[in-house]
Amino acid sequence: MSPKLRNFIIVLCLFFVAMLGYGQKGPPPPVTRAAPPPPGLAVPINENILILLVLGVFLGIYFYVIKYKKVIKSSNSQL
Q1: What pLDDT was estimated at residue 70?
Q2: Structure pTM?
Q3: Which burial class, exposed, middle or buried, applies to 51 when counting CB atoms under 10 A from its CB (0-12, 13-18, 19+)?
Q4: Rounded distance, CA 64 to CA 72, Å?
Q5: What is the rounded distance in angstroms from the CA atom of residue 14 to the CA atom of residue 12?
Q6: Torsional sign, CA 39, 40, 42, 43
Q7: N or C: which end of the chain has fewer CB within 10 A?
Q8: SS3 73
Q9: What is the domain partition of the chain in residue ranges?
Q10: Residue 52 contacts residue 45 (beta carbons within 8 Å)
Q11: pLDDT for the residue numbered 37
Q12: DSSP notation for 4-51
């Protein structure tokens, strides 16, 4: 295939792709949301923040202990 024909086909394909993109419908209208809840209502994360913090501390301790055991095990195996 000659370079001129190849370039013509590429330009023609790009032209049609651009025309298809231009011919599409516009974006859909935005969805109307419900009114926000009145202030002062309990939000789940505000109610359970203490539980979340305690679980985070326990998870941190758990991973620290696992890492500490690996370090102790590897140092014992080198002896």
Answers
A1: 80
A2: 0.41
A3: exposed
A4: 12
A5: 5
A6: positive
A7: C
A8: helix
A9: 43-79
A10: yes
A11: 66
A12: HHHHHHHHHHHHHHHHHHHTS--PPPPPPPPPPPPTT---HHHHTHHH
Secondary structure letter of residue 39 according to DSSP: T
The Cα–Cα gap between 75 and 61 comes to: 21
* Tokens matching residue 60: 């941190």
- Read off the tokens for 18: 């651009």
Question: Cα(58)–Cα(49) distance, rounded to whole angstroms?
Answer: 14
Give pLDDT, residue 53.
93
The total number of residues shown for the chain amounts to 79
- Read off the DSSP letter of residue 53: H
The larger pLDDT score, comparing residue 17 to residue 9, is at 9
Both tokens assigned to 25: 């419908």
The pLDDT score that the predictor gives to residue 19 is 80
User: DSSP assignment, residue 33?
Assistant: P
